[in-house]
Amino acid sequence: MLPAFLSPELGLIFWQLVIFLLVLFLLAKFAWKPILLALKEREDSIEGALRMADQAKIEMQQLKAGNEKLLTDARLERDRMMQEATQMANQHRETEKARATAEANTIIQQAREAIQQEKNAALAEVKNTAAKLSLDIAERILRRELTDPAAQTQLVDSYLKDVKLN
Amino acid sequence: MKRLLSILLCFVSLSVFANEPAAEGEKAEGFNPGEMILHHIGDSHEWHWLATDTGNFTTYLPIIAYRPGKGVSVFSSERISNGEGEASGKEYDGLKLDHEKLVSTDGSKLYDFSITKNVAGLIGSAILMLVVFISVASGYRKNHGRAPKGIQSFFEPIIVFIRDEVAKKNIGPKYERYMPYLLTVFFFIWFNNLLGLTPGAANLSGNIAVTMVLALMTLVITLASSNKYYWAHIFATPGVPKPLLPIMIIVEVIGIFTKPFSLMIRLFANITAGHIVVLSFISLVFIFKSWAVAPVTLAFGLFINVLELLVALLQAFIFTLLTSMYIGGAVEEHHDADMQIGYSDDSEAAHAAH
Fold first, then answer.
1. What is the interface pTM, i.e. ipTM, of the complex?
2. What residues make up the domain containing B144?
3. Can you give the three-state secondary structure of A36-67, one letter per residue?
4. Domain check: are B270 and B318 in the same one?
5. What function is annotated for this protein (chain B) (predicted)?
6. What are the domain boundaries of chain A?
7. Which residue of chain A comes nearest to B203, CA vs CA?
8. What is the pTM assigned to this prediction?
9. Are B278 and B302 found together in one domain?
10. B180 contacts in A (CB within 8 Å)?
11. What is the per-residue pLDDT across B209-263, written as a single tens digit (0 to 9) for each?
C-alpha cells in the first residue's frame, strides 16, 4: 500500500482533467490565439519595415550609381561633342582653305588668261602699228618714187581695185 | 544536490541531539513533525487557514460523493469534520472521514468527487490564469502594433521564450499547433508552484494526481501527433541488428511510457521535496521549543524558500521543454540514423533526450 501522498486520488484526477482542459480551451481561444497572432503580426511588420529599409538603401545606391553613370555619360558626351566640334571646325577650315586655294588658282588662271589676251591684243596692236608704220614708210617711199603720172595712175588703179575688193 | 543533502544531514543530526531533553515534552504535546508535514503536503476536505490559541480559522468545502446504488450526496464537510487530533469523528449520510480520506461507514464502494482543498486551489489558480492572460491578450488589442505595456510586457518575453527557444527549436516547423498546450502547461505549473509556496495555499503541483494528468496529456498529445517515422523508430530501430530487435522493441515501447512517467515523478517529487524541507525547518521550532533555534530556522527556511521560487520556474520550464522534445520526436520527419548525422542540432538534442 502506497502512502497517501503517493496515491493519486480519483476525485482530483477528475477535477484536474476537467478544469485543466477548460482552462486550456479558454486560454487557447481568448488568450494564446490573439497573443501569438499579435506577436507574429508585430514581428512581420518589423521584418517588413527592415526589408523595406534595406530595399530603399539598395534603391538609393542604384540611384546614386545611376546618377554617377549619367554624369559619366554626360562627361563622355561633352568630350565627344567637343572633339566632334573641333574636328568639324578643322574640316571646315580645311575645306575653306581648299576652296580659297582653288578660287585663288582660278583667279590666277583667269588673270593669266587675261594677261595672255592682253598680251595677244597688245602684240596684235604692235603688229598693226608696225604694219601701219611700215605702210607709212612704204607710202612715203612710194610717194617719192611715183612722181610720174603713169606710175601714179597705175597705183591708183591698184588701190581702187583693192577698194573694190574691200 | 550536495548542498541539499548536507542541509538535510545537519537537520537529522540536530534533531537527534535535541530529542533527548525534549522527549517527554514532545510526547505530552503530541507533536509529530512527520505527520504534520504529510498533512500539509496532502489534500484535505477543509481549508485550514490558521490556528490560534482560541480556535481554528477553517473554510469547510463541499463533499461530493458518489456511491453506486445510493447516488450522489452533496453536503458541507463541516458535518463530518474531525476534531483536532482525532483520526475519525462525526458521521453524516453514512459517510465519515478516516484521517483525510472519505469512507462510507458500512465499507461500501465510494467515489469521492469532493471539492477538496486542492480542487478549490485548482479552481482559484484557473481563474487567476484566465484573468491574467485574458488581460494580457486585451493588452495586445489595445496597444495594437505598439510596444507592450504593464502586465503584457512582463509576460511577453516569457511567451516569446517558450515559443522560440522551447517550441520552435524542439518541435520544428509544426510548432504552432502545440503552442496553446505548451503555454498553458508552463504557466499552470509555474503559477501553481508559486501558489503552493504561499502559506495556507494548496499544494497542487506537488500532488501526484495533478502531475499524472499533465503527464498523461503530454503522452496523449505525443501519440496523437506521431508520424510513421516515430513508429518506425520504435518497431525497427535503425542500426540495430535483427536478432536484437525483439528486445529493442520492448525497450522502446516501455520508453513511450517512461517518458511521461518521469515527467509525473519529476514535478511531483521536486515540489513535494521542497515543501518537506521548508516544513522541516519550520518544525525545528516546535521540536526545540526554543527561541535560540529561530535564526537557524529562519535562515535555512528562507534559503530553501527562495530556492523553491527558482525551482518553481525551473520545473515549469523543464516540464514544457521535455514535453516539446517528446512532441518534436513524434512529429519529426526523416527519423533515421543516416539523416541525423549533421542534420540539425535540434534533432540531436531531441534524440539525446530519448
1. 0.81
2. 117-352
3. HHHHHHHHHHHHHHHHHHHHHHHHHHHHHHHH
4. yes
5. Key component of the proton channel; it plays a direct role in the translocation of protons across the membrane.
6. 27-160
7. A5
8. 0.72
9. yes
10. 24, 27-28, 32-33
11. 999 999 999 999 999 998 888 888 888 878 888 888 888 889 889 999 999 999 9
